[in-house]
Write a structure and sequence with these properties.
Blueprint: H1 2-17, H2 24-44, H3 46-49, H4 59-72, H5 77-95, H6 102-105, H7 122-130, H8 133-153, H9 158-167
Helix pairs in contact: 1-2, 1-5, 1-8, 2-5, 4-5
Length: 177
């Protein structure tokens, strides 16, 4: 679920932390990183794991990302710049409802096995995912939010896109409480 994770993560972070200067590039990377890590592993070795929510969907992965950011940066601009990467990973876990899958979320602390999807093959799992209306609904919500954000930020103009690519920022006020 690409649009759900990107749109949902941006919305949560923007409206919880209310920081208009956050680097959305790193936040987006964090929002998709668990799937970028797990999907290839799960697809290739599906017969061994029987899941595509593996290492990247664990609290250990999210905690390690935060620890790496904290210990590899000094307080100030560098840390503030990289924290969105770790925050994006955490929000990904929330948007995937990983608290409902304690075996995976708390791997390896509750055991060394990931939750089994119950599907015999990756193809069967993929077919089920692609036919799930709830997934398409979430993708639609994420896509609508991103479309609104792109429109309000004027990212249809080359100058706005260039500025976003260079800074990771958009010119969309969050609004005050």
């Amino acid at each position: 679920m690409l649009l759900w994770h990107i749109g949902g993560t941006i919305a949560v972070i923007r409206y919880v932390f209310r920081d208009e200067r956050i680097d959305l590039r790193l936040l987006i990377l964090g929002a998709v990183l668990p799937d970028l890590v797990d999907l290839p592993i799960g697809a290739i070795w599906f017969s061994a794991f029987r899941s595509v929510q593996l290492f990247g969907h664990t609290m250990l992965f999210a905690a390690l990302a935060m620890v790496i950011v904290v210990f590899s940066t000094k307080r100030g601009r560098a840390r503030k710049r990289w924290v969105p990467l770790a925050a994006g990973i955490l929000i990904h876990l929330v948007l995937d409802l990983m608290w409902l899958d304690s075996a995976t979320l708390w791997w390896p602390f509750l055991g060394h096995e990931f939750s089994d999807t119950g599907y015999e093959t990756f193809r069967m799992l993929a077919r089920n995912i692609l036919g799930d209306w709830k997934i398409w609904l979430c993708e639609g919500v994420g896509g609508l939010y991103l479309g609104m954000l792109v429109s309000r930020a004027g990212l249809v103009s080359a100058e706005s896109r260039r500025r976003f690519i260079e800074t990771g920022r958009i010119d969309v006020p969050i609004g005050r409480r």
